[in-house]
Specification:
The protein is an alpha/beta fold and about 425 residues long. Helices cover about 35% and strands about 25% of the residues. The protein folds into 2 domains: about 160 residues, FAD/NAD(P)-binding domain (3-Layer(bba) Sandwich); about 190 residues, D-Amino Acid Oxidase, Chain A, domain 2 (2-Layer Sandwich), CATH 3.30.9.10. Helix 5 crosses helix 8. It is globular and about 65 Å long. The model has no long low-confidence stretch (mean pLDDT about 95). One of its GO terms (molecular function) is oxidoreductase activity. This is D-amino-acid dehydrogenase. InterPro entries: FAD-dep_OxRdtase, FAD/NAD-bd_sf.
Amino acid sequence: MHVIVIGAGIVGASAALELIRDGHHVTILEAGEPGGRQSASYGHGCWISPASVVPMSMPGLWRQIPSYLLNPKGPLVIRWRHVLKLLPWLLRFLIAGSTVARVEKTAHALATLLGDSPQRHLKLAEELGLSHLIRQEGLLYAYPGRQDFEAEKLSWHLRSMTGLRWKELDAGQLHAREPQLSHRYNFGVLAEDGAHCVDPGAYVAGIVSMAVARGATLVKAQATGFVFKDNSLIAVETDNGRLECDRAVIASGVWSKALARKAGDHIPLEAERGYHGVLVSEENGPSHPVMPSDGKMANTPTSKGLRLSGQVELASVETPPNWKRVDILIEHALATYDHLTPRAEMKLDRWMGHRPSTPDGLPVIGASSRSNSVFYAFGHGHVGFASGPITGRIVADMVSGRTPTSSIAAFSPRRFT
């Protein structure tokens, strides 16, 4: 079959490669460069972790939202012009995390995508000849004290429940692992199986290059719609003409919402914008990925410097970036490490991108309502990069008419109807 994959982020790239393995003729549609700055796959926090099963919406969050919104340096921002449009999504978001039972169910579903994510990435990177881009050295969570860790007991319950291997670190063990950490952090947790990517853009580009080398065609165009004959897909419309095909996979991140509507589904997908700043790494700079509890951000050593990633900004995709969010990340980083200094020449890069987020924190994976010829693979929120390879395998199974090896019922597009 001829399958068109719309989107060349980590999910689309992985799906294309898996479809090639299954013997399909594959065309990848991407308006920008594969692995380019337009993609959430480029600018995320670089973590590949089974620990990421904790949803954004948790019991009691509604009590914290006012303080978050009133704090100009807080981790959550809603652009006020967007509030009315967001209200239905926000209500579903709060309900999704309203009870322990609900978040346990969400964590179990995410664990099916994340449980073996480091191993999948290591295997894929080796196949690509890019093993140097994936490092499995564990991921650190740093706390001022044990009481701050215990304040997150539900999060660690969800991680333990889903099989995460982790160990507690006292102050000495924490600073032995990351000597650059400020001594105001006296307690830590090491997620032992966690990994990270030191150049996500190059990694995703490498997946696409491998797919093309094995027979896929890369077309620089933007998908605009579909052509059906009865219930069967016969073509994808683009801004550069019509491409005939037998199947299509929508994996274009936040822009998938409009395409899904043309395939018969109204998916509550919103842009959960995130930011990163990159600081030039000192010769003896931070060497381990760290998430400081008081910063709610991921600090990750990469090939281009220390990437500081975080912030949740709910706004439309057309809203200009607020680069003060990057300044906040840098301010947190300067407080997290003892030897970082606020020199202008340290600021190597800044980025803003759109996490494609559903209100229940789960991706949308399955066939469209309009036709079993159109498949969805989007809405992964904070876990798209980590879960890209397994999502690609699931997509290939669906397209080929096989039952995926793990249940995808929790990700059904029909759950919103």
